[in-house]
């Protein structure tokens, strides 16, 4: 009888352990990439190709750059189309966008690529003036159209924005700029997703558009896992795609997505 009781107790313990076992998980699959000011989503192509080969479902947002609200709305529209948990990635001004749009319920993590990451009530223009970049210290580079849209002097663009891209590519990007409304840089944020969601940050060591020290400050404040890419320009997402994709991949694989059966 003692042997029988012991056997029953052992079986009951196994059953309890089985019931209490955590649900299985699989790596996150959805990644949304958000470009910065004056450029478009095509610059993400090298990163996109690496990530898709790794098995991720990657989507680029094409912001109109007509207002900060419009750009956040464009990002949320793409997030609405995702079929589950999503890693949201932003470059440059795109960092402000993902900070605001990242409160979307599908977003489970943020990656900042040489990007701004303001807090609620802050805007990147004011923060940039406190820690100016080479661009911020140089007059005449940012041009303004009569209807208040900005763009970078196409002649100066290659050496400031993309000095580590092939010259022909940098000149093409300079001549295919999307003018950005002046207000996109000075609109205060109403949400800061990095306060409640895990984040990763990439510092471009030779960034002349955003001061690398400002990038470090943003990421330290957000408690982001930070990677410095020495010598990289503001175009780090296009000039150093393997290193950028590696950070995004590491972030995505560190976020486990519960499997529902």
From TrEMBL:
Domain AB hydrolase-1, chain residue ranges per copy: 31-247
Record's signal peptide: 1-25
Keywords per UniProt: Signal
SUPFAM superfamilies assigned to the protein according to its UniProt record, in alphabetical order: alpha/beta-Hydrolases (SSF53474)
Species whose genome carries this gene: Bradyrhizobium cosmicum
Protein name per its UniProtKB record: AB hydrolase-1 domain-containing protein
Highest taxon of the lineage: Bacteria
Annotated coiled-coil segments of the chain: none
């Amino acid at each position: 009888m003692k042997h029988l009781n012991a056997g029953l107790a052992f079986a009951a313990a196994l059953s309890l352990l089985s019931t209490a076992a955590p649900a299985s998980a699989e790596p996150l699959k959805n990644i949304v990439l958000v470009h910065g000011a004056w450029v478009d989503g095509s610059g993400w192509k090298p990163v996109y190709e690496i990530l898709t080969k790794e098995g991720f479902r990657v989507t680029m947002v094409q912001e109109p750059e007509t207002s900060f609200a419009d750009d956040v709305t464009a990002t949320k529209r793409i997030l609405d189309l995702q079929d589950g948990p999503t890693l949201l990635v932003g470059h440059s001004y795109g960092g402000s966008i993902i900070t605001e749009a990242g409160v979307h319920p599908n977003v489970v993590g943020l990656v900042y690529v040489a990007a701004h990451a303001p807090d609620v009530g802050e805007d990147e223009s004011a923060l940039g003036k406190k820690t100016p970049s080479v661009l911020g210290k140089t007059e005449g580079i940012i041009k303004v159209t009569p209807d208040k849209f900005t763009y970078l002097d196409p002649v100066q663009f290659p050496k400031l924005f993309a000095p580590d891209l092939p010259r022909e590519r940098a000149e093409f990007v300079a001549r295919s700029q999307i003018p950005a409304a002046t207000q996109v840089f000075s609109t205060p944020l109403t949400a800061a997703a990095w306060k409640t969601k895990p984040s990763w940050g990439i510092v471009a060591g030779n960034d002349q558009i955003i001061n690398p020290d400002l990038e470090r400050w943003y990421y330290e404040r957000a408690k982001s896992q930070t990677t410095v890419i020495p010598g990289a320009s503001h175009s780090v997402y296009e000039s150093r795609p393997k290193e950028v994709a590696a950070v995004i991949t590491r972030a995505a694989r560190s976020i486990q997505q519960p499997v529902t059966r």
